[in-house]
Amino acid sequence: MRFEIHASKGERGMGRHRQLSRLIAALAAAVFALPAFAQATPAPTLNAGDTAWMLVASAFVLMMTIPGVALFYGGMLRAKNLLSVMMQCLAITALVTVLWIVYGYSLAFSTEGMHAGVTNWHSFLGAFDRTMLAGLTPSTLYQTVPESVFVMFQLTFAIITPALIIGAYAERMKFSAMLWFSGLWLTFVYLPIAHMVWSGPGSLLGDLGVLDFAGGTVVHINAGVAGLVACLVIGKRRGYPHTHMPPHNLGYTVIGTALLWLGWFGFNAGSAVAANGNAGMAMLVTQIATAAAVIGWVAVEWIVHKRASVLGAASGAVAGLVAITPAAGTAGPGGALVIGFAAGSACFFTATKLKHKLGYDDTLDVFGVHAIAGIIGALLTGVFAAPKLGGFDSAVTSPLLQLWIQAKGVGFTIVWSGVLSWVMLKALDLTIGLRVGPEQEQVGLDIAEHEERAYNLS
Amino acid sequence: MKWVTAIIKPFTLDDVREALGEAGVQGMTVTEVKGFGRQRGHTELYRGAEYVVDFLPKLKIEIAVADDQVELAVEAIIRAARTGKVGDGKIFVSDLEQVIRIRTQEVDADAL
Question: Span A2-450: which CATH code?
């Protein structure tokens, strides 16, 4: 029965529901204190519609990493490194799954020791009571769906987040270092941040009132900042920026973008953890913001570069998907339009101008697209959650106040992810070394690291 | 005998082959090549990273012809490959000392 006191992932973005879930938590605590009345609480029951949708949504989000991110990133690389990134996506999927089962789910979602409004050790990180998914049976529920489905759904988020970072250090990191980094990063950055935002009453950022419906902070700012730190610590690719390094197959990138776009409906609408009106609205605003971001990026590009590019349209789509993610549970259609357009047009500048100006080699613009769109989305979530601006969170009466709360969540995540990513990357560099040798880099990671090549054309 | 090498725009290949056939040329070798002359390359732009592509894809046609056939062959190539725009290509004509057909060991005119 312990799961009925969770603040739902779907409700966490809704102030009204947040209040409600706190009430329920208090009620549940009272019930636990008086076992004689335990029978009086209605037990959560399984809803077949919700369960069916969440089964599908979980598969959709997994599709975003394999093959979505693998193709989106792989196409932008040189042909000699295509397999390395696809392997990284596959390997992270396998590694994170195992870690998630062993301790990841527990550290992210255990509510042991948490109390609404109380900041303690468990506001930062869950307990170990769900290690090896202890207590999970076919009949355990999370709200109205089997807990096994919720475990699976959240696992797919834990997989895609470290996979997004790949884009920053692509074409030069050792496979072994990539595995160590992904495992450590999941443990010390992803799990705590997911816990602080999503684990319900008593969580650090959740109690602060930070709105993050589907992971703008937890997934995108988190991964984007880690990407920037990773590309700074590991250094530029040999020859960058003077050597030609054009994408080898933008067709893959377009296919990857389309798979991400589709999968994102599972990501955002699935975060309602129900087949209901919230899920429907999340799906609609996701589509709106993404379309607006494509138009935003391409319009600015057309003015600045005198050309509308395929890579620009694909990049704009991803920027829009990222930006609407935290807002998908609270923004209305108008807000989604503004959020998408702002993210698409701003990320054009950060990915095509800022990077070249500052000279860092974030290979596939994990920072320029994911972190920047994530920050824009997280901040504007606060603004467009307000009912007077077309939003659906009645608890947000002052967009400015909520903007400030959002900014605190963004700032906290940037510092947490930035500092810890730097520490673990430096430690790995000093011990096993992050980079392949110059010769391996020249040959390409496919041959150098895996002794295979993507294309055997003869 | 003459050795005629022509660099042409790839899309004109079918017309050139046909014209050479009409001019009595029996065989040819075609290779995909890259290069530049007066027609320079183009630039490509990926997320603000600009690449200048100097080498453009062309086709190289090589034929061996008898001396009295050269003029006809060269005219055929020009007729079929000319668009009038920069980048139509070039024709190089040089002397050819000897030709041997491997199967029969016929030489020169008999081997053409």
Answer: 1.10.3430.10
